[in-house]
Amino acid sequence: MCKELKTKVLRLMPATSNGPSVHQESHTDGAEILSCTVKALKESAVVAVPTDTIYGLACLAQSSEAIKKTYDIKGRNGQKPLAICVGEIQDIYKYCKVPVKEALLSDLLPGPVTLVFERSEVLNADLNPFTSLVGVRIPDHAFMRRLCQMCGEPLALTSANISSHTSTVAVHEFQELWPKLAVVVDGGPIGDQSRLGSTVVDLSVLGKYRIIRPGCALSSTVDVLEHKYGLSEDLGQQ
Predict the structure, then answer these.
(1) Contact 203, 27 (CB under 8 A)
(2) 22, 60, 149, 192: which has the fewest Cβ within 10 Å?
(3) Sequence-ordered list of residues with C-beta below 8 angstroms from that of 11, at least 6 positions apart, any chain
């Protein structure tokens, strides 16, 4: 059973109201939210964050304690992997073995795409110990990118919901998880209401791609992979 924490709910922007449009300093300063969230992460806590697709739960990928908490909070099957999230394209090379051109990474990231590669030895062995692959994201979201940069190490990222429940696009939708989280960063409703999450594509085989999850950016991702870089779909492993 997860220990209940004193959760900080920090709003990145003022809440919308039907009343008079008066500017209110009801939200916390962005730098202060970043600082508070980094502190919680460095203490191996789990936090909720907005991304460019849906709300996510994040923890330090290199902390085995935090990884375990994340699975416990979600009630997630231990054989289901967690993706990692980094702040810059160069960070991907530290944690993954990348067989594609850097230009391809730059065409897809930052964005609503998770790229799957062979993992490097640097990555925590307790993160997805059942597979040699790892998915990596750079969300097109300024807060998330800055958070990764300030942590100086990858975050493990998964959807902010109980496992098998619907993905969430506003913080109140996963309120039942708040007591298990150190910080909930409220970035307001996420614009893309599709709730599909990122498109997940395996690029670990040279010259091939394999769609693991269609997600919200399938056609644009396939267009880049096939027409710009000449990759062909690997249908043999499905």
Answers:
(1) no
(2) 22
(3) 26, 27, 28, 186, 188
Phi, psi (5° rounding) for residue 64?
A: -65, -35
- For residues 82 and 158, is the Cβ–Cβ distance under 8 A? yes
Residue type, 132: S
Look up the pTM and report it. 0.90
Tokens of 116: 């799957």
pLDDT, tens digit only, all 238 positions of the chain:
344 458 899 998 654 444 333 333 344 578 999 999 999 999 999 999 999 999 999 999 999 999 999 999 999 999 999 999 999 999 999 999 999 999 999 999 999 999 999 999 999 999 999 999 999 999 999 999 999 999 999 999 999 999 989 999 999 999 999 999 999 999 999 976 678 899 999 999 999 999 999 999 999 999 999 999 999 999 875 4
Report the DSSP pairing between strands 133-137 and 155-159: unpaired
Structure tokens at 227: 């027409």
CA distance 83 to 139: 12
- 12: alpha, beta or left, given left = phi > 0 and alpha = psi -120 to 50? alpha
Phi, psi dihedral angles at 110 (to 5 degrees): -65, 150
Q: Are 209 and 203 spatial neighbours (Cβ–Cβ below 8 Å)?
A: yes
DSSP string, 141-164: -HHHHHHHHHHTSPEEEEESSSTT
